[in-house]
Amino acid sequence: MKLSTVDAMKLFAIACLPLVLASAAPCKPEVFDVGANFANPPASVRPFFRYWVPDATVSDDIINKDVEAIKRAGAGGFELLGFYNYGGTQSEPAFSVTDWAKYGWGTEAWRNTTRAAFRSSKEHGLLMDYALGPNQGSGVPAHEDAEGLMLDLVPFNATVPFGGSFNDTLPGWGSGKFVSASIALVLESRVANWSATPGFENTFYYNGTRQVLASDSLEDVSSAVSGDGHLDLNFPSSDTGIEFRLFAFYQKRSGYREQVSPEKIVQIPQSPVDGYVQNGSWVNDHFSEAGAKLLIDFWEDSFLDLDLRELVREVGQYAWEDSMEFGTGVAVWWTPKMLEQFRSIIGYDFTKYLPLLYSHVSQTPGPLPSPDRFFTDDEDEGMSYLNDYYKTLTTLNRVYLETLQAWAQNALQSEYTAQVVYNLPMEMAANIPAVGIPETESLGFAHLVDAYRQFSAPANLAGRNIISNELGAVQLEAYTQTLPELIWDTKLSIVGGVNRIVYHGYPYSGYYPNTTWPGYTTFYYRFSAMHGPRQPAWEYYDDYMNWTARMQHIAQSGVAKTDVAFWVYDVTTYEIFSRYNSSDMDDAGFTYGYISPSNFDLEDAYVQDGILAPERQAYKAFVVRQNDSMTLAGVQKLEEFASNGLPIVFYGGIPDSVLSRSDEKDLESIYSILENMSKMEKVHIVPEGSLARSLISDVGITPKVAVETDGRWMTYWREDEVSAHSYVTLYNDASGASLGEGRSSGKVTVAAALGAPYVYDAWTGEVIAVRVCQHDEENMTIPVSLAGNQTAILAFHHDETPQCSLDRLPEGVSVRAASAAAPTFELLNRNRAAETFECHVEQTIKLPAAASAVELSDWTLIVESWTAPNKTSTDADYTYEAVKTNSSAFSLPSLQPWSEISDSLRNTSGVGFYSTNFTWPPGSASDAQAGSSGAEIDLAYILNTARVWVNGHQVAPLDPVAPVADISSFLVDGDNSITIVTATTLGAAVREYWEQISVAGVPVTLTAPAPREEAAQGLVAPVKLIPYSSTKIEGCYNLSYRRDEVI
């Protein structure tokens, strides 16, 4: 029921429209009404869709139609991305079915496409993120010799026998700008098979060698090379090893483009290339200020006109760059001043160690930069030198990110959002604070809450309240991904602290050449999902988008608070994985995040009253594990933190390792500090095992939300001092459980001083007072039951006093109250037996038994099937609109999957219309004396979507993992009708048409396997009517019941 007593409550949303920003000034929060705006959050806190536009041949009218559809589905905006066939491929000849000289990214046509998208966004009250370049946003049109383009370092080598000499031109001379030459003694060599896996291609295998170099023999001989590349060098004899190796390195432009040059396209005629703007887009250097300025200068000098700049400021949300997916274009990551910068940052000359770079190549498709890979005879095979190189890359990339962030704020009155470090060997935690809106991607973070915590903690510490997630990409589920599957990932993201969702994605719905039904599809069907009206469920997406909006509304309010920080220091975040694999911290209710020593210099990284970052996460303890890698600056800060009263916990022992060669010189100092710390009062050394138990018993800290449950619950806490509310999101992790299974019960305990508890229902928008709890002067305990993979939001209103009317309830009984302090409330009994309560005034209250639950039967089902049009893509009247055909009516005594109802429904996509009737109140003899005050409908679980009407009245949106709703207000005495509409994905129809599908002339049979056959469609579990008796309680604030409670 709606909550009227909090309608005037206010909360401030930190995320605000860019147009209220003034230069680089902080965002001023908008005032939102809790009652009204939780039910209907503003666009700024609603989810976005990534909107894929194939190129600038698209229609402005179709863009407007798509934007209107996005608005209608309940999103707050979209990311505009010119996809350009994922760059157009880098092969020669390149691939396109349109004229990219005329319609390429950055051209006048693309400027007008961008303008049309902004204007549509403004017309429909949405916000728009805008990619800074084509494909992944990582490049712009530029002159071929422009400063700031991505560079590569190409290697060559030659062998020299013992006692031999080299008197010749360096191998590879002329391949690029000469960088260096070096020599080394080869100690051993063996045949090896190497592989590389470029994006979206098969793995390539190469025959090569694995060679070990004598570390002390490495020598830079660049100074001996003449201006014409000649080198005259004699080599000594040796009693060890097999030969000497001469290395030469050259710097050149990578040649990799975010959009290929039209001059390389042969499928259709291309217009003449009159200048660099028509000649495709180069990837820019992501390790220099010059690389950022190349992008900025194009926008400022060639792209933004006055009208477009004004539109950016009015409805532009964020300037955006995707993950750095251009590894196939380089051998190693390089920038013109790499060696100078390395020496300045790290403190030694890296030149002679360049051969080691190719032992960890990028995604080069082949041939590899060298079939030979080189390692040293050091214990770590030279990895510590490479780690110093990765540290340098991290620092240089941070300059790039900071330059774009400053420009976005100052010039565009916006923020810059980027997928920091994703796909590159750098330290993620160090560079997250450089971006105004850091972004992750669910694909790379692999549904791991622990991984999200690694990303969100540095962002929160840096004051980044909004953390974005490109969410939903799953391999080979382009048209089969269900909405419950999609929001399962959303739940993991939010409980991990990543609180802004950009759903992946919405493809342009209009005509595109040589593309068949169901329409333009990105990545050649390799990744999910293709959202939009082409999906049978699109009409019902708003239930899920509104849920996401409400979850984000809460998850973005106030400040994230976290119990415990873990030390993390990894300079090569190629892949994200869980770093703490035990569930004991979650089981106890502890929230935790990962902080790098690289974050210790942030403004809010200080200790006050024994709390780290009191204005941010307010960590109560800092955990360092025995196998963590340390830095001198980091342990110095740890010592300072401990001195200021922060508990430091060494889990499993004191660490004794460092990552990089530059850190090795500090080992003695690090050992000394750690030894001194072990004697400090606030430092605890605990054995491996239950960390949570050690934190509670040995360190003396407790979680903000203590949890006791028979499942596995995760918590996420937000504290909003402005509105005087605190929020905890609970998630019951039942990963792997079958649909309808995984329910768990338990209780959460918080500080009593937090105030009155409420449930914020993200599915309906209702705010419901909690009256079942126990509290004393210190703590308040609330019983909770969650379905498998269900979330719940508990809110605490600081300015209200908790009113625990009942300490426990029997299963099947619940309480309904208008507010925490309302003088009356209701008890609803769904049980066949009467239930008895005692009031504090010695009054006995008996709840009448409820009528028996009724499994609804005798259903009628009509299926509207969606199929491909019976035309070819070359027909003049060809359309991407599916043909919709209604089946004859099926009579169903009970519910079962479509494939079991009739062979004609096997592999069918579409919409199912179920209807039946029932009598109210129930009329069986056994129910004659039972209470029938009202009833709920229970669908058990939902496969994709389900919407319910009772007597023509639409029922509130249903949680797919706990689809129960009260229908009492819609019931009439006598005959009642119920209609349930379910919608499937388009996957089954796509599967049936698979052999005829192509995208831009490419048959999808060459690019992806056919969609999997759906295991089940429609309503497959019993639908039940659950009557209840309702008893109003007045003048009795404390009821007691002597059985275990479940609410």
UniProtKB/TrEMBL annotation:
Listed InterPro entries: Galactose-bd-like_sf, Ulvan_degrading_GH
Stored SUPFAM superfamilies: Galactose-binding domain-like
One matching Pfam family: Glyco_hydro_106
Signal peptide residues on this chain, from the entry's feature table: 1-24
Keywords: Signal
Keyword Signal recorded: yes
Name the UniProt record assigns to this protein: Glycosyl hydrolases family 2 sugar binding domain-containing protein
Phylogenetic classification of the source organism: Eukaryota, Fungi, Dikarya, Ascomycota, Pezizomycotina
